[in-house]
Design a protein that fits this description.
Thiol Ester Dehydrase, Chain A; 6-stranded antiparallel β-sheet; 149 residues; single chain; alpha+beta
Amino acid sequence: MKGLDALNAHYLAMPPVAAMQVRAVFHGDDVLGLTAPLAANVNDKGCAFGGSMAGIMTLAGWGLLTLKLEAEALPAEVYVADSHVRYLKPLYGDLDAQARFEPGVDWAAFMRSLRERGRARAGILATLHDPEGVVVAELSGRFAALRPV
């Protein structure tokens, strides 16, 4: 995988994600931004479906760690180990998510663990914003990287 174009191709290769029309739109300074149209993720109340909200934030965390590992040129598979989602208010616009590493993530220790033990975990925080930039949902998760055997 090489950058946002490859990440977007990877997302499109997963049928549920393709149906959500998720697209990576920016990456830098240890942050990844994704977007998806409300029309593809709407519920019976006319706002964003909760599963889509959780999904795009999970995908943002997964993508952030995947791109960070790509930059290290260390092959690994990334998985979500666990997560907790808080829905703060309904979203009546497109889904715009951002993921960042939790404060205090020790990247050097993460990489040392991955190299020596073949696995490592990092905490990632993702948020979903309404069109005015107000946070409408938050995801706190641990994402695992496993080196191929």
